[in-house]
Amino acid sequence: MGSPLPVRGITGHLVWGTDGSAWACFEVDPFAYPHRSARDAQDAHARTVAALLGLPAHSLILSAAVELSADELERRIGGTEATARPAGWVGLARRTALRLAAEPVYERRWFLAVRLPEPGGARRLVDRLR
Q1: Listed residue (5, 26, 23, 6) closest to 14, CA to CA
Q2: Pairwise pLDDT comparison (40 vs 30), residue with the higher score
Q3: N or C: which end of the chain has fewer CB within 10 A?
């Protein structure tokens, strides 16, 4: 089965498809609602819906699960940073990271991809209308 977005090349945030299309791709930081007031959550939800409805027709929201290593888990727990930690924190962070990493730990990442307009595409449309 073919990929829904066959890729020919990637440079920075630009992705070129095998069909000649160019896409701009950006990682999107998720927005957490749980610790917001009901009013703030409703406002954020309304802004999110408006932004999604305003996307061009050729847009994709992609999600990928990235496996985290024991070293990355330890870093995120705070076991490798040079800042002051309570006594025994580094050892506890290392042991916890190793215990967590015994089973795969994944982080969900979100991306927005928007197909860029073709150069001269508007001119071709005007020519067809004539």
Answers
A1: 23
A2: 40
A3: N
